[in-house]
Design a protein that fits this description.
Layout lengths: L3 H12 L2 H30 L15 H23 L5 H6 L1 H7 L4 H34 L5 H28 L3 H21 L9 H7 L8 H21 L8
Helix pairs in contact: 1-6, 2-3, 2-6, 3-6, 3-7, 3-9, 6-7, 6-10, 7-8, 7-9, 7-10
Length: about 250
């Protein structure tokens, strides 16, 4: 009974093919960057309507630059894909009465929240690891080898960045009736904090985890405080979500 909700989430992910298409989309996003950068001169030459004899001479990006572009692609479009896939978390169960039924069984709210959070985190982590491996493969094949240690650190930071954003979304989805609003607020907060970090010295904030996943290829940065504050945000988000989970929909 303790893992029933968690197992049900995986069965639902399999039935609606979320278990398949999320990793595939993330892998495609990651693979497109090295492929696009490698064939960019040919793409420009074929579609640029250049005069005869013109030559496009673009500097070949370094493997680090390629992997940085992969990280940025995943942090932007990949995060949107993951949040949209989780959009109906809690809101669908409120509408069909599943949450109210779970409450009548006296199942702890913390078990409900953590089961859903753990499902999406594991699904996302698996997709991100596969995406990073695909990016690494094409980078080595099309460009050159890279610093494996920096790549592993970048992957860990990127994964933790997604975990923090998913935790914030779970908190908002637990309290707000509309899953769409929860997605918009999560992305809005992410956008605002990313801007503030660029203007103010907020390098200790968990929203630095994303930029750090790129910066680690170029310079050494302070990783400790973003990881510590990120961990605090995850724990507080799950705790508050468990306390403030809304079971009923007003439109039900």
């Amino acid at each position: 009974m303790r893992t029933a909700i968690f197992k049900q989430e995986w069965r639902e992910s399999w039935s609606n093919k979320r278990l398949i298409w999320i990793p595939i989309v993330l892998m495609l996003l990651a693979s497109m960057q090295p492929l696009t950068l490698y064939f960019l001169p040919d793409i420009l030459a074929s579609g640029g309507n250049l005069p005869d004899g013109a030559v496009i001479d673009l500097p070949t990006p370094t493997p680090e630059e390629v992997l940085i572009s992969v990280s940025e692609q995943l942090r932007q479009i990949g995060l949107l894909v993951v949040l949209l896939s989780a959009m109906h978390t809690f809101s669908h169960e409120r509408t069909n009465g599943t949450l109210a039924w779970l409450k009548s069984l006296q199942i702890p709210t913390s078990r409900i929240v953590i089961s859903k959070w753990a499902h999406y985190v594991l699904l996302t982590v698996g997709g991100l690891v596969l995406a990073q491996l695909a990016a690494a493969y094409y980078t080595v094949i099309l460009f050159e080898a890279f610093d494996v240690t920096a790549f592993l650190i970048s992957t860990v930071l990127l994964v933790f960045h997604f975990v923090v954003q998913l935790s914030i979304f779970i908190l908002l989805a637990a309290m707000i009736e509309s899953g769409v609003v929860a997605v918009v607020l999560t992305l809005g907060l992410h956008f605002v904090m990313s801007l503030l970090i660029g203007w103010v010295d907020l390098d200790w904030m968990p929203w630095m985890l994303g930029p750090l996943s790129s910066q680690v290829f170029l310079t050494e940065g302070d990783l400790v405080w973003p990881i510590v504050t990120g961990t605090v945000v995850v724990i507080l988000s799950l705790y508050v979500a468990s306390k403030r989970l809304r079971f009923m929909s007003h439109t039900a």
